[in-house]
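Model: Ready when you are.
Researcher: Fold this.
Model:
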Amino acid sequence: MSTAILTGPPVAGSPLEGDLRALGFDVRTADDPRSAAELIAAVPAQERVAVVDPRFVGHRHTLRLALTDPRFPAAAVPGALTAQPEARAALNHAATKIPVGAGTAHLTDVLTGTLTDALERADIGLQRIELGSLVAAVPLTPAQREDAGEAVAAVDGEAVRLRTAVKSRDGFFTTYCISPYSRYLARWCARRGLTPNQVTTASLLTALIAAGCAATGSRGGFIAAGVLLLFSFVLDCTDGQLARYSLQYSTMGAWLDATFDRAKEYAYYAGLALGAARGGDDVWALALGAMVLQTCRHIVDFSFNEANHDASANTSPTAALSDKLDSVGWTVWARRMIVLPIGERWAMIAVLTALTTPRIVFYALLIGCALAACYTTAGRVLRSLTRRARRTDRAAQALADLADSGPLAELIAGTMRGRGRAGSFLAPAMAFLSAAVLLVWVLFEDDPASWLTVGVAACAAVLSGVAVARPLKGVLDWLVPPFFRVAEYTTILVLAARADVPGALPAAFGLVAAVAYHHYDAVYRIRGGSGAPPRWLVRAAGGSEGRILVVTVLAALLSPSGFTIALTALAVAVALLVLVESIGFWVSSGAPAVHDEGEPA
C-alpha cells in the first residue's frame, strides 16, 4: 500500500481523493506543514509516500505518471510529488525543515512546490514529469480553477495514455501494422489485471507452439507457424505497451522481454531446421549461421551504445548527416527498415515460412541480416572515427565485461599491464587478429579437427589477452566484444559442420544458444545498472577464449561422433551454469525498475 497525504486548503467536491484511491493510495489529510511532516514520518520507511495539494487540478493520468512510476526514486508535477523508499529520508528531512509562522507564506502556500525544490537540491534523482498536452496545476483563485478545469476537459487523458503506450521510435511494420490495434489489446489486458510479464510469457508460449508447428515439416504446419509467429509478435508489442499504459516497469520485465525475444526467435530457427529435416533437407548450418549473425549484430549494437553511453561530446559529421536525413520523412522509414528490425524481420520470416521452404527462409534471413550488419557497422565505425568524445571508466568497464574474457586472457592481460597506450587502436587490432587467425585456419584447413588447430586457438587466446590488457577507451574499442563473439560462435559452427556427422550441428546450435544467453544476460545486467555477471561465473564458464580452446581440444581428441556427444554435454553444462545463476539473480535482484525500448535492430 502507498500513502498519499493531502496538505493544503481543502476543496469541496474535488474528485482528487477518489482519483488517488483509484490509483491505490491510502489517503490522509494534514491541516498544516507540521502535521504533514508528522504524517510523512509516520509512513513506514519501506513504503512509497505522496504529497498532494488538495487544490490540484489535472488528469488522473497526470497523477499516475507523477505518483506511480517505479523507475524514479522521486517524481513531481505541479501540485504533487512522490518519494520511494530510497528518497524517503530526503523527503522527511525536507518536510521537517519547512518553517511555519509569519513570513513563511511563500513556502507553505504551495507546500508541494517547496518540497519538490528541496528534493531537487538534495540530488536524489528527482524526475520532473514531462506532461505534453496533459494538465497539472494548482489554481489559487476560482477563476484560475475554472480555467484549469476547462484545460483538463479539452484534452482526452485516456487518448493520450493510449497514444503514449506506443514507443516513440519503432519500425515501419510495427508502427503501421501492429500498434494501431495492439495498444487496445494492451488496455484490455490492463483492465483485466494482467501484467506485462504474463503477456511476455504468453508471447513466448505462442512462439514455442509456432516452432513446434514448423517442426512438423508439413505445409499446414508451416502456415500455422507463420500465423502464430505473427501473433506472438503482436503479444510481444502488447507487453511493452501494457507496461507503458499501466506504468508497470521492472528490471525483471525488461530482462524477460529481451531474453524471451531471443529464445522465441532461436527456438523458431530450430523448429524450421527440424521441419526441413523431416522433408530431407539439412539446414542446421544455415539455422546456426542465422543465429550467429543475429547475435553478433546485437553485440555490435550493445557495445557501441555502451561505449558512447556517457560520452561527453558528439561532434561527428556522420551523426550530423544522420540527423539531417531524419528531417526528410521518407528517409526515416527507409533507414529504419534497412536495418531489418525485429518487426520487419519476423514478418519476413512468417510470410516466407508460410509460402516457401525453410532453406529459402534462412537464405533471405542471412542475406538481409548481412546487409543490415554491414550498413549499421559501417555507420558506427564512421561515427567513432569522426567524433571527439572522452570515453569514461564506466564505458571501458562495460566493454571489458562484454568481452567476456576468461582466466587465460586475464593471465595474459596481467603480464601486459602498463604496456601500450590506452585509447590507441591496439585493442581492436589485436581482437581482429585473434579472430582472423583462428577463423582463416578453421575455414581453410583441410582437417581443422587437429592439434594444430588447438595451437592456433592458443595463439588467438594470447592475442585476445593483449586486446584487453588496457582500459578499452579507444575510438574503436567497442569492436573488441563483437570480434570475440564472431570468433567463438563461428569456430563452433565450422568445427561442427566439418565433423559431418548427424547431430553435430544441432549440438553446436544448443551450445551457441547457451553461450549467447550468457552474453545477452550480461548486456541486460549492465543496462539495468546491476553490473556484469560475477567473475566466478565468467571464470567457471571459461570465458570466450577458454571455451574456444575446450571445443578445439575436444575436436582434436575425439572421433566425430564423440565430438558430437561432447558438444551436447558442454551445451548442457554451460546452460545449467548460466541459467541457474541468472535466474537466481533476476528473481532476487534489487535493481531499480527500468523500461527497455526494444532492440535497435
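Researcher: Now this one.
Model:
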Amino acid sequence: MRRTAAALATALTAGLAAGAQPAAAAEPPPTCGTPADHQIADVQGDGEASPLAGQTVRVEGVVTADFQRSDQLKGFFVQDPTPDRDPRTSDGLFVYSTEEVAVGDRVLVTGKAVEFNGLTELSPVSAVDVCGKGRIAPTPVRLPLRGGATLERYEGMLLRFAQRLTATEVYTLGRYGEVTVSAGGRLFQPTDGHGSTQAGNDARKLLVDDASNVQNPDTIPYTDPRVLRIGDSAAGLTGVLDYGFGEYRLEPTETAHFANTNRRPKKPRHVGGDVRVASFNTLNWFTTLNRRGADTAEEQERQLAKLTAALKGLNADVVGLMEVENNGDTAVKAIVDRLNQETGAGTYAWVRHPYPGADEIHVALIYKPAKVVPAGAATSSQDPVFDRPPLVQTFRPAAGGTAFTMIVNHFKSKGCGDATGPDEDQGDGQGCYNARRVEQAEAIRAIADGVVNPLVVGDLNAYTAEDPVKVLTAAGLVSQTRRFVRPADRYSYVFDGQSGELDHALAGRSLSRRVTGATIWHINSDEPVFLDYNTEFNPPEFYRPDAFRSSDHDPVLLGLNLR
C-alpha cells in the first residue's frame, strides 16, 4: 500500500536523528493533489475478478497506452508508478473513457470498478484529471511463467518480452488483426508425437492484437514488407496486457518487427527417384458454384489457378487428391484439363473412381501416362464404415520396373456434428469420431494386405501419435515423412495455433525400401487465410495466382526408385 505523507515525515525525522543523510528516493513522488482512495492493485486484487467490483473508486496512475479512437478500444491504460509489493496483484488498469489524455500523463481517475468480459476496468468514468507527467518502464516478462503462474498478475500492465517469440497462428490476421506467438518455436499438437502437452502449449503462447474491434481492417498488420507466416519470429515485443474473448492479448505500444525466419519454399525439397508421388487435399474443389467451394465464377477461376500452380510445382507423376466435388468426372476433369493446357496436351489423365460414395466430396487420382501405366482396373470398398470410400489403383512405370498400388484416403473428420456414443469426444485429444477413423484404418489395413506394394496416402484426419495411424504402422506400413522429414518440419496442417501432420504417406515394407525421399511442401498451412482465392473480406491486392494458400493443407511428395 502507498505510505501516507505523515508516515513518510516520521520516517525522515527518525532517519535524521540517527545521522542518516536524506536521499532523493525518500522523497514522496509527485501526486495529483487530491489523494486516490485506492491503489490500482487494490482494484485488481489477487484473483481473476476485482474485489471492489461495483464500487466507485479513485485511482492515480500514468497513462501507458492510448487506444481511444472509435475504431479502437475506446479507452486507455494506466499504471501505478508506486506499485505494491505483492506479485499476485497487477498494477495496471484499463479505463473505458474518451476523455483526452496522452501517453505519459499522470492522471487521477474516478470511475466504477467492473468486470467486462473478464477484464477488470473502470466504467463508467466520472472524472479524468491530468495533473502532470510520469514514466512507466515496461515490466520484463518471459514465457512460460514460472511456477504455473498465469498472466492475470500482469493484466493492464505495460510489458516487454525480450525473448524471441515465434508466430504460431495467423488464421485471424486478416479478419481481426491478430497473431498468436509462442516461446520455444511453433506449437505442435499434443497428439502429433512431438512431446508437447496442451498445458505446456497454453503456457507458452500469447495472442498479439491490434487494439481494434474492427473486423476486416483496411490495413492488415504485419504485411509490409512481406506477409507474416507462421514460423516468423520477433524479439522485444512490448505492449499492454489486455483481456477479451476468453484470452489475454498483448496490445502493442511499439511496432513489432517479425524476422523472416520461415521463408517461403518456392519449390519442394528434392526427393529423388524415377517416379514422384504426391498427396494433396484441395480444400473443396467444386465446379458447382456456391456449394462448399467457390461462390462465383471469379472465385472458381482464382481457385483453379492456385491449385494448378501447386500441382505444377509438385510435378508429381501420380497425385492422390482429396476434397474434390463428387460429381462424376466433372471436377477432376477440370483440373486435368487446366494442367494439360499449361503443361502440354495429354500430360495428365485421371482414374475413374468405381465407387465414390454419396458424400459431397470424394477422393481422386491423376497421373502422367508417359511415366506410369494403370495395371488393371481401379477398385474401392463398399464397406459402410467409409464416408468417402478409398480409391485403389496399381501402377507400373511406363519404362518398366516395379509396380506399386496407390490407396487414396480421406478419413472421417474430427468435427463433432451429429456425434453420439463412441463417436463423441473422449477427452483424449483425438477429437470426435476417433472410433470411426480406427475402423476405417483397420479396413485400409486389410486392403493393403491384398495388393502389391501398397502406398497409403491422404488426409487421415489423425495426427501421427493417434490411434488410426498406430493401426496402420502396427500393420507394417512405414511413415515416409517420419523417415525423411526432420521433426520441426513434420506438419501439414495448423489448427488453433498448433501444427500437426494430418496428411500421411505410408508404404509397405518392400516399397519403403524403394522410397528415395519425402517432403512436405509448406505452401499452405503457414500462410494467412486472406491470401486464398476467396474475394469476400480478402483485400484484392494480396491475391496471386500462385501455389501459396491454394489450400489449408500442405501437399506431401515422395520419390520412388522403381527401376
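Researcher: Key takeaway?
Model: Residues 297-314 form the longest helix (18 residues).
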